[in-house]
Amino acid sequence: MAQVAISTCDICVGGPGDNYCEQCQQLFCDGCKISHLRTSMSKNHTFKSGPDNKSDVKQNCKEHDENFIYYYMECDTPVCKICAIKNHKKHDLSEIKESTKAITSAVKNNIETKIRNLQSNIAKIDQGTQKYQTDVKEVIQAIQGEGRQLKELIDKKVEVLIRSVIANETKNLLTLESIVNEFQTALDKAKEQQKMYVDTQRIKDNTKMLQRMKQIKSEIKVIDEKLVPVMPSATYAKRKAIEIELEKLFGELTFGEIIKRKENMRQHKNDR
Questions:
Q1: What does residue 148 show for φ and ψ, rounded to 5 degrees?
Q2: How far apart are CA 7 and CA 55, in angstroms?
Q3: Under 8 Å between Cβ of 244 and 217
Q4: Which SUPFAM superfamilies match (predicted)?
Q5: Looking at residue 53, what is its pLDDT?
């Protein structure tokens, strides 16, 4: 069952978006809300809080009932021509069409990069899995080749070693399969956002498209993109069979366990 994504702050894109500014039509975390209310242009803005804080998207300016034609870069919100003259004379404004085009391009690049990275990681695991399975086969063959030189007692030792290799292989392959499934789940989510992005291109209204692109952008950011783990390995150091203790007739098995790499990089904020 798909989980509902938690809304994040539209300003810092990090904290929970628990506060909705009715004038800017944006979600704010508690810290960004305080900063917003300290700004002279927005000190009188009103907020709604709680799980149902976000109002329906408006196509016209609430104050002047005019179409949105400009985009206020600092507040990341659309404005009408009257707001632009009265409240935003010295502010950095752009045409809403251009802003929509920019965020559309950014979302497209984010989706493509996410999918490309996930597909690359899955391919690396597949290649590593094949190499690992080849290593396991070679180790088993080496054990069997050395075991054939020994008598019945040595055959029993061979069986013990092979069981150890196969058991380790089974455990590691199950872990690798689980990791691949995690990558595949993330890839499927990214492809869902890609489909939504394609469907959004048919929207005629720029404001509605802008809101949809911001939604897709937010959904893409929460897709988990893990690093490829250090792949397991199996080696066997052979020894020359001589008349010594049974344990010394065989080489030593060594296993490279799967190591899940910790996330050591943060996703950069995408240009709004």
A1: -65, -20
A2: 13
A3: no
A4: B-box zinc-binding domain
A5: 55
